[in-house]
Specification:
The chain has 210 residues and is of the alpha/beta class. It has one domain (6-190): 3-Layer(aba) Sandwich (Rossmann fold). The chain has helices at residues 17-29, 40-49, 58-69, 105-113, 119-129, 145-156, 175-190, 202-207; strands spanning 6-11, 33-38, 76-78, 97-103, 133-138, 160-161. It has a 6-stranded parallel sheet with strand order 3-2-1-4-5-6, sandwiched between helices. The protein binds flavin mononucleotide. Flavin mononucleotide is lined by residues 12-15, 39, 41-42, 44-45, 48, 104-107, 139-140. Flavin mononucleotide binds next to α2 and α4. Pfam families: Flavoprotein. GO terms for molecular function: carboxy-lyase activity; flavin prenyltransferase activity. This is Flavin prenyltransferase UbiX.
Length: 210
Amino acid sequence: MAGPERITLAMTGASGAQYGLRLLDCLVREDREVHFLISKAAQLVMATETDVSLPAKPQAMQAFLTEYTGATDGQIRVYGKEDWMAPVASGSGAPSAMVVVPCSTGTLSSIATGACNNLIERAADVALKERRQLIVVPREAPYSSIHLEHMLKLSNLGVTILPASPGFYHQPQTVDDLVDFIVARILNCLNIPQDMLPRWGEHHLNSGDD
Ligand SMILES: Cc1cc2nc3c(=O)[nH]c(=O)nc-3n(C[C@H](O)[C@H](O)[C@H](O)COP(=O)(O)O)c2cc1C
């Protein structure tokens, strides 16, 4: 299997809940085990931006997301914000890759300063200390120098800063096409197969054009 078998997916309260939901769907279809974390603010954003009514409690949320994505039992594991006994809270149990999508500037700041005030921040801190793959997908406009400093700090620590800024060269027709652009980029970084967006040059090679 290409890419990590187990992945931590954290959703925080920046705009773009669709990115997180779509990534979850793709990871399930690619048979990955997903350790799912979501902040209170992200739940509010999801209710604002989508038709998905996510239950508040982790156990009910897990059952809901399992059905919503068609995952197998146990494929999606949901943990509460202070569940310090969760595998993601320790280097010995955490998956080898973590994606924070969307990533609020608040959580970006907490990760950059090692705050560890909730399980999302702790899981990211574990990824950093263990030098594991960490991808953050921030969204804000415009960015302040504080946001940019945090991104530079994390980038220098090996974190992938993948801004939620879709390109338009694939001629998107729908909002889903824009969402898929970012999710495909995340999957490429994880080395997980995706067929939503051809890699640069692939279309040219396959088209037979000169
Ligand atoms: C509808 C909505 C949209 C928001 N959009 C953004 C955003 O795009 N970027 C951002 O950094 N914060 C955004 N926020 C503010 C964050 O949710 C807020 O700062 C929150 O404290 C982040 O908490 P968290 O990092 O624990 O999720 C938004 C909030 C709401 C309710």
